[in-house]
Amino acid sequence: MTSDSLSTAPATDTAPLEIPDINLWSGFAATFKRDITVAFRSRGDIANPLIFFLIVITMVPLGISPERDTLALLAPGMIWVVALLATLLSLDGLFRTDYEDGSLEQLLISPHPLYFIVISKVLVHWLMTGLPLTITAPILGVMLSLPNQGYMPLIASLAIGTGVLSLIGAIGSALTVGLRKGGLLLSLIIMPLYVPVLIFGASAVSSASEGFPFVGQLAILGAFLAMAMILAPFAAAGALRISVNG
């Protein structure tokens, strides 16, 4: 075979495979924009956790004691417990709407990483639930006679802690998204994981109210948030694939 015949030989099918360029953040931005729009259209779902938070805290002086010293002692723990329950109240719908209208299956088969899509949904949940609870907490602290030095730690601990609660709750919500009545099972799954966040969040406010250092508790909450941001979206993404495809 001559060199001319080699040069005119047909090309083989060994050309490199062209992989489309996928922007990792495009799925995040599109999901965030869609979910934030849907959230503002259903304002009742946004108001329910906040109304629950306000009503329960308002009932505390009526049901326990109106004395300032008693309320000041109970304020850090009560605010944190009710904030936790209010967050839990809104978690069942984190992925359920997308599951019921079929858009969750489209998200699972899309070329965008599910990790960033989960983070986008959790961020919307925190903006619609955790942030309003954090903003209104100082007002409720006044109702419960919280000492002045406890307000900044209260805001800081709730801002960090509610983010952790939303991230952890996304795992339970993903595991129960395919169940008709998964609210109780959701609570049983994630409540043990909420306990450390509750302990250190309430401890930070209590320590500050009593004049003790509280930076250590906030640092631990920050460590919880960093770990949850890394691990929780992966766990939630895997749980979604199991719930939808399994």
UniProtKB/TrEMBL annotation:
Annotated localization: Cell inner membrane
Membrane topology: Multi-pass membrane protein
Pfam families found in the cross-reference section: CcmB
An annotated GO cellular component: plasma membrane
Residues passing through the membrane, by range: 46-64, 70-94, 114-135, 155-177, 184-206, 218-240
Signal peptide feature range: none
An annotated Gene Ontology molecular function: heme transmembrane transporter activity
Keyword vocabulary terms for this entry: Cell inner membrane, Cell membrane, Cytochrome c-type biogenesis, Membrane, Transmembrane, Transmembrane helix, Transport
GO biological process: cytochrome c biosynthetic process; cytochrome complex assembly
Keyword Calcium part of the UniProt annotation: no
Role: Required for the export of heme to the periplasm for the biogenesis of c-type cytochromes.
Family the entry assigns: Belongs to the CcmB/CycW/HelB family.
Protein name per Swiss-Prot or TrEMBL: Heme exporter protein B
Organism name: Marinibactrum halimedae
Gene it is expressed from: ccmB
